[in-house]
Amino acid sequence: MGGKVTVPDVRARKGGQKLTMITAYDFAMARIASEAGADMILVGDSLANVVLGFDSTLDVDLDVMIHHTAAVARAEPDSLLVGDMPWMSYHVSVEDGVRNAGRLVREGGAEAVKLEGGRKRLPVIEAILKAEIPVMGHLGLTPQSVNSMGGYRVQGKAVDEAREMLTDAIAIAEAGVFAMVLEGVPDVLARIITKEVSVPTIGIGAGAGTDGQVLVFHDVLGMHDGKLPKFVRQYADLRGQAVEALQRYFRDVQSGEFPSDEETYHMGEEAEKALLEGPSSDLSWPLSW
Ligand code: KIV
């Protein structure tokens, strides 16, 4: 693509070349994602799990999300920067939701926000959009609803549930979201939603029929030792490579191989000699080191 990706660029890709989105949570990851050509970077609340080691995304608040979003923004990625609204940042009141979306933009540098839920969230989605902040929707297995869902389960497997989700998707698309994530839903339902809504759908565990795909950075690059979900394809083993590289470094330190002369600072020969010989009579020289 080349150049900064904008919300209208993403909208225009509906039904065209597939959209790519990857999560990133800090400056270095954002540089990597942008250089690799990600259309969108999502500073997801999945950082609760993969960066901070919590069990669920319910453990991060807006200040944490702003902190990480701002680090990603400082990388000045070409990718569109989407900031995730954490649990309880848009559930208390519409006013609160708009104010918090504004903080993610003003303090975090997000160019759009993502929030979970369908018709239930229409008032807050509409109000954020009225504040000129682009909104990405998120339906299906919405991790912030883990307790009401009774665990992390594929959603929309029953016909009535699938119809409800389709109605939600149409409603948030008509409200004006510029794209929506479909997470953990059966392939056929993702295809139907993708056909019925006018905005791009971005799948994660939703099969190949969506307008784009998103995965978590740590999953794609193999940065964990835990079990990966069925929908993840791991493209690298960075954890394995990192462990191996650190082991070589520690071995070199212990054997005296590191640092070498080339990795060491020196004074000029004369200055070094003068220093070693002693500069003045009032110091006992050479110093006893
Ligand atoms: O928080 C996150 O990373 C997400 C993606 C998995 C869509 O919401």
Explain what you see.
The chain has 289 residues and is an alpha/beta fold. The chain has one domain (7-220): Alpha-Beta Barrel (TIM Barrel), CATH 3.20.20. The protein is 40% helix and 12% strand. It has 12 helices and 8 strands. The chain has helices spanning 7-12, 27-35, 47-50, 62-73, 94-106, 122-130, 146-149, 159-175, 187-196, 217-220, 238-255, 269-277; strands at 19-23, 40-43, 80-84, 112-114, 135-140, 179-183, 201-204, 212-215. The protein has an 8-stranded parallel barrel with strand order 1-2-3-4-5-6-7-8, surrounded by 6 helices. Strand 4, helix 6 and strand 5 form a beta-alpha-beta unit. The relative contact order is 0.10. 3-methyl-2-oxobutanoic acid binds at residues 23, 42, 44-46, 84, 181, 183, 204, 214, 216. 3-methyl-2-oxobutanoic acid binds next to strand 6.
What would the CATH topology be? TIM Barrel
- At the fourth level of CATH, the homologous superfamily is Phosphoenolpyruvate-binding domains
Provide the CATH architecture: Alpha-Beta Barrel
What percentage of the residues does DSSP assign to strands (E)? 5-15%
Class by alpha and beta content: alpha/beta
Bound molecules: 3-methyl-2-oxobutanoic acid
CATH class: Alpha Beta
Give the biggest beta sheet: 8 strands, parallel, barrel
Number of strands: 8
Elements, N to C (H/E): HEHEHHEHEHEHHEHEEHHH
Give the strand order of the largest sheet, numbering strands 1, 2, ... along the chain.
1-2-3-4-5-6-7-8
List segments where confidence is low: pLDDT < 50 over at least 5 consecutive residues: none
Report the average pLDDT across residues: 95
Radius of gyration: 25 Å
Q: What is the rounded distance between the termini?
A: 59 Å
